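Session log. Operator J.P. requested a structure for one protein chain; no other inputs attached. Running the standard single-chain path with token output.
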Amino acid sequence: MEIQDLAQFRVQLAYIVLGTVFLFFGFASCAIAAIRRRTEVRVLIWLGLWSGMYGAGLLFRTAAVGAAFPGWLQACIPLTFKAISYLLVVVALLTWSELTRGKMQSLSRAMAAVGLAIGAGGIGLFAASGSVRVFLPLNNLLAVCVLISLTAVVVVPKLSARFVVFPNRILTVSTVVFSIDALYRNASRWLLLPSFGLPLVVDDLTFVAFLLSFAYVAGEKVFANERRLLSIESELEIARQIQASSLPTGTPEVQGLQIAAQYLSMTAVGGDFYQFLQADRHRIGILVADVSGHGVPAALIASMMKVAMQSVTSYADQPSKVLSGLNRILSGQLRGQFVTAAYLWLDMEARKALYSAAGHPPLLRWRQGKLESIESNGLLLGVAPDPGYPVCELTLDPGDRLLLYTDGVVEPENAAGVSFGDRALEQALRDNQASPTAELLDRLLSQLHHWQPASSAQLDDITLIVIDVMK
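Structure written below.
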């Protein structure tokens, strides 16, 4: 009798230890998924639920754990245990679906839906009458079908390579061992086969190995995604540095002009571009361009603008030829994207400016308390082979202020859905007409920031260039 009690105590202790370990593992897995908050870690949620439910089921098998609960909770233990028994296969299938692809993933989710329906019926029937006759055999049959299909997929190399995200020997061996044990246990009940005297805890140990193999594959998937994301972030950082090197590092000094520029990318790399073509101390050309779209594709085309600009420097004093040359180079290279651009040539000896644009927001000139909108637009770059670009000639008087910008300045919306727009931009220029160029840019960007809701992210790249004509 004492020997039997000691053996029973050891089994109960094993259940308590294993149950506690798997509950902890389940909580830890779900906590990691909650912290990361990425689609790729969804497998950790299902794995955590699977482990936690299995651990709770082990604990509920022990009389000591049941006795520790208050009386009203003890009455819920049988229903909870049956609910775990029904739903364990559902959570396992959802975990498996995250580690597979293609038709196997769809099949796993469909079987999980079937298992959920069986579980709902079985739990409801058990709560109402305490019976498990109808739905528990169906649940066991589903589990057998799942094991057979799972074993076939991980054992057959062609199926494993096709449907499993990270096929490996650990998953194969543990699945085969668990499937053999589980299938034989079920067959022995139906066909009255011998059990060879193996204790029930052997089933749990094979299941532990099976669950851990899933955890290993899930970890491989999560870590592979993390490594991929780190690699992408590293490449984006390199791309950002390359793009930054293609932009001017400062503003040129031109006699009679004060120039300030500001560039803010929406993402690590952006689709805006600007460049200065300085002929001498008195003459300079300024290009501002905006590529449609965002991110890496737009940034690649913006980088092409840097190369294309080298071919138009010989006629920097002719805005129409500059834009036509850029259009000719970029046509056929944009792959469905387009570029707006504006080019301004400033000649301080002649006190005049030439301006032309390709589908770009207008040049703004602040003169004697009034804001003028100057448009001289042709087609966007890349639309037609040789569209032609009209040129507008301007006089430059002391006190004039010119503003070149991209549409990321006027498009941000406030909480009411109202765009910052031309009126807010005009008011910002009016309020800061006495501010130096660099200070004006800072205040404009600050007003843009306050215009948008605090939770709203920047939705487009922003480029601002302010030119003050001095006496």
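Operator note: The two ends are 109 Å apart (CA to CA).
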